[in-house]
Write a structure and sequence with these properties.
Length: about 300
Amino acid sequence: MILHRPRWPTAAVCLTALAVSAAACGDDSSGSSGSDVSTSELSEAGRLVPAQIREEGTLSIATDPGYPPNEFLDTDGQTIVGMDIDLFDAVADELDLRTDYTSEDFESIITEVNKGNYDIGVSSFNINEERKLEVTMVSYFTAGTRWAVPDGNPKQVDPQAPCGLAVSVKASTVQGQRDLPTSAAACLADGEGLQVLPFGTQEEATSALLAGEADAMVADSPVISYATQQHQGEIEAAGKAYDTADYGYVISRDNPELADAIQMALVTLADEGTYGKVLEKWGQSDGAINDFAINP
């Protein structure tokens, strides 16, 4: 688990067990915990935080850190970093709360949030009708699906005609669970093959493309954008983004006050410019939205 005492633009971050005092994570002068702050000193969004969370002073957060640039492990192999992390740290700061991140398998996050084991899930969740039946979702970013290929696109890959290709993908994504299997079934029906190469992390999927094990790779548009930036001259994007959808924070339906607080914090961050600065830092300004909604 990683406990953040967010203070934008820089945050005091440390590795900690829950038993470790939050004061050990940074200089006490950087700010007090939520439980030490009087209601009159809180922002409008901060005053909406449920009493139990305000008393604890920390938001417990589940994330699957294998999807750069959104959430991934830093070079130390332990610290969780990324666009999602920076942005939600800023949200928590507006609420005068700390953030405590724990790595979880993506497919378990909604279940664990509903069990009450975490206050929120922050892990590039596309908002869809199925998920809105299970949890409350607060929109904060928009992304589509995009493909990447080796530089120069030697096999002339067309994302609209994928049959005959070997395609790498992070298994737990919408592309790995829905898009590629659907395409593979259609290719098989047409008497052609589509080899889906599923991996546990995005880094592994990208490595397969770089090593020539895959003809192409498919992921969310910010992931493809980041991968091509990191590996200029080796891979490039193919085609345009499609199937655009909002990302949303995952909150239990039993905790509507927290959803309200987070939505208001996002509005404030956008108004003051912090929201835009976070996205710009990670090269993801194209995904900015201006309507932060609850279950849009």
